[in-house]
UniProtKB/TrEMBL annotation:
Keyword Signal: no
Signal peptide range: none
Keyword vocabulary terms for this entry: Pyridoxal phosphate
Positions bearing N6-(pyridoxal phosphate)lysine: 40
Name of this chain's protein: Pyridoxal phosphate homeostasis protein
Residues annotated as domain Alanine racemase N-terminal: 11-236
Family designation: Belongs to the pyridoxal phosphate-binding protein YggS/PROSC family.
Record bears the keyword Cell inner membrane: no
Role summary: Pyridoxal 5'-phosphate (PLP)-binding protein, which is involved in PLP homeostasis.
UniProt xrefs under Pfam families: Ala_racemase_N
Listed Gene3D superfamilies: Alanine racemase
Length: 239
């Protein structure tokens, strides 16, 4: 048995140093950036250790893995974020544990989330996932709405009972004009967030940046970074 707690503590400290340094470089306060640890593919025992180490936000991208993990950790003071592509038939399960769904990208999903949130009497935070590489009307390959579709979808979320419009989320595109240009991509997301806040001032969350590009996200103004590998290690297989 390796000392998993020691390993996670060391990784977490390293990520914490990176976030602090990025904040300092950008002239931002450390409190302006929230770390969300992406625990996908890792067991509930790791989530428990992370909680002991002071982590308060975790994220998952597949309901079939997340649901049992969240149930096993329901005694912990954690906020659960759902960050994967979400099918409407999984909405009932996801609303059972998710505090925030970061991958809202179509009207049908808004309707389903609202209906279920109302049914169980919960408020679910929603971020609009933006596909920066999608055409003006298309949706991204990995989910997300094109920039031109944000306003309409945000309006739907804001008007939907049981849902709270939190802001925007993106994953830096791997291909197209933003490939290898994470900071430019994240700055574009910030501009879109500025536009959104003209009509929805409270929708101030900007979720961007992962293990490889959290510095660029913090530099651009992200309020939430989603870090998996740098805390938990390289995921076995796909994930
Ligand atoms: C897996 C995942 C992350 C974390 O990625 P790492 O490179 O492991 O830090 C962040 N956001 C989303 C949407 C993910 O699916």
């Amino acid at each position: 048995m390796t000392d998993r707690k020691g390993e996670l503590a060391a990784n977490l400290a390293q990520v914490e140093r990176r976030i602090t340094a990025a904040c300092t470089a950008a002239g931002r306060k450390r409190e302006e950036v929230t770390l969300i640890v992406v625990t996908k593919t890792y067991p509930a025992s790791d989530v428990r250790i992370l909680s002991e180490l002071g982590v308060r936000h975790v994220a998952e991208n597949r309901d079939q893995d997340a649901a049992p993990k969240a149930a096993a950790c329901s005694d912990l003071p954690l906020s659960w974020h759902f960050v994967g592509q979400l099918q409407t038939n999984k909405v009932r399960s996801v609303v059972g544990y998710a505090d925030v769904v970061q991958s809202v990208d179509r009207a049908r999903l808004v309707t389903a989330l609202s209906k279920e949130a109302e049914r169980v009497g919960r408020e679910v935070g929603c971020l609009i996932q933006v596909a920066l590489d999608a055409g003006e009307s298309a949706r991204g390959e990995r989910g997300g709405v094109a920039p031109g579709g944000i306003a309409e979808l945000a309006g739907l979320v804001a008007a939907a009972p049981g849902l709270r419009l939190g802001g925007l989320m993106t994953v830096a595109p791997l291909t197209g004009e933003y490939a290898g240009q994470q900071q430019v991509a994240f700055e574009r997301l910030m501009d879109l967030s500025t536009d959104l806040r003209r009509t929805h001032p409270a929708a101030n969350m900007v979720s961007a940046g992962m293990s490889a590009d959290l510095e660029q996200a913090v530099a651009a103004g992200a309020t939430h970074v989603r870090v998996g590998t740098a805390v938990l290690g390289v995921r076995p297989g796909l994930g």
